[in-house]
Amino acid sequence: MANSEPMDALLGHLRRHGRQPAGALPDALGISRATLARAVAAAPGVVRLGRTRATQYALARDIRGASRWPLYRLDPQAQVIPLGDLLALDRGEFAFVTAQPSDSLLHPPFEHGIFPDLPWFLDDLRPGGFLGRTFAHRMGEHLQLPVDLKLWDAAHVVTALLHGGSAQSGDLILGDAALARALHERDSPSDLVPLADRSTRYPQMALDVLQGEQPGSSPGGEQAKFTATLERDAGRRAVIVKFSVAEDSAAARRWADLLRCEALAGRVLDLHGLAAAQATLVETPGQVFLESRRFDRSADVLGRHGFVSLLAIATTFHGEASMPWWRLAGLLHADGWLDTESAQRLCRLYWFGALIANSDMHLGNAGLLLTDTLPLQLAPAYDMLPMWLRPGSQGQVTIRDYAVPIPSAGQINAWQWAATAALDFWEQAQGLDVTPEVRRFATTMQSGIGRILERFPRTPARLPS
Fold it and tell me: What secondary structure letter does DSSP report for 379?
């Protein structure tokens, strides 16, 4: 057999069959283990995965001239922690190679670090929503990426992650170039705003992001936003800023009402013992800004905290993309992702949202603080507001009747806790500077919740099965 024949046979076999266990290759190729070792060493693009009996071989997949990139964590003290390497494999697979154990990142069935697509713990780094579209519009042509995020595949996402960006959630950074940008952005933020200048800078920053938004590209009701780094006497703080449009219209006034309600919801949750993103209202003539402190960024040093959405976990480990948070809480508790207390808090948060007419509680709107060890902690609440009242996709503003939800089986205690907090929310909402229609809706909701609350006596708490 010519020297090149074992290598050619190995490459052909991997192309036909994909990733293969090392122990099966000698018989499949009709060669000895020693010959296989020499073929692997000589074959271009063949990567070894795992150790000892778990060893596998696969073909690398080229993405923009490379197939292997380092993955880093920027910790809360802004220290760089190397975690391992991400490898792009043939047939759309990826591998995460690390010498460090991680109960969460390599949670079964991915304990060997092999993933059918981009690893789930990178899902929330994908550009998405208003900020993601802003990135795609601004950088798409430069990076040769589709402007429409719906057309992106894993290779496009990897390209974007390697470019980096300060708006990405969590503490994970892919590639040396993205790490360098993150460290530079930490030291010299491009969105730096002196605290005293918010009332003049925020309107201009809002105008800038709206000018970058293509007409008709925003899903109905999605709130415009931008990031900022506040310069204070005590240090710097990273925030996300939502805003109402500076125009005299019913839709703009309704969004201003909703931003005031979102700030109130966070205060009520904190008062009742559930952490929420710290929010501040900044109001200018004809415009309202809701400034929410980023809980995935540490104050002053601008380090980072890990984050993963419920959506990333539910779709990966349970094949679900739309179940209610309270039901997922039971699954996460059973799988070890959440302890009993955090699972109960997630149930309470869901019912609070349902009782303040938050009709947009998809699995991307809640998450966990991602660390290497389990169980994880529930992230502070965010995007918690009565979205039932949002303007329609064409700007129409109405007040529709809202059916106050009753508790599901096993959820009475969580519902009762949430009902008490929601009553507090709606009572205070009537004193906000909101339009009369929203004030009347608040009065109706307060009465409706109060009537139903009287019908459910307390029972022993338990998690959903």
Answer: P
Lowest average pLDDT, out of 19-33, 93-107, 131-145, goes to 131-145
Q: What is the DSSP letter of 17?
A: H
**What is the C-alpha separation between 302 and 75, in angstroms, rounded?**
9
Q: Which residues are catalytic?
A: 360
Question: Which residues is 69 bridged to in the sheet?
Answer: 86
Q: Are 72 and 179 in contact (CB under 8 A)?
A: yes
The burial of 219, by beta-carbon neighbours within 10 Å (0-12 exposed, 13-18 middle, 19 or more buried), is given as exposed
Provide the edge-to-edge strand list for the sheet that holds 192-194.
192-194, 225-232, 235-243, 287-293, 279-284
Q: Tell me the per-residue pLDDT of 305-351, one tens digit each, with 9 for 90 and over.
A: 999 999 999 999 999 999 999 999 999 999 999 999 999 999 999 99
Cβ neighbors of 425 (< 8 A, separation 6 or more) are: 264, 265, 268, 352, 356
> What is the Cα–Cα distance from 31 to 387, expressed in whole angstroms?
64
Which structure tokens are listed for 307?
């984050």
| 3-class state of residue 369 by DSSP | strand
Contact 129, 242 (CB under 8 A): no
Kindly report the number of other CB atoms within 10 A of residue 223's CB atom: 20
User: Which string of DSSP letters, residue by residue, matches 381-443?
Assistant: B-S-S-GGGSPPTTS--------PPPPPTT-HHHHHHHHHHHHHHHHHHTTSS--HHHHHHHH
Contact 20, 14 (CB under 8 A): yes
Q: What is the value of pTM for the model shown?
A: 0.91
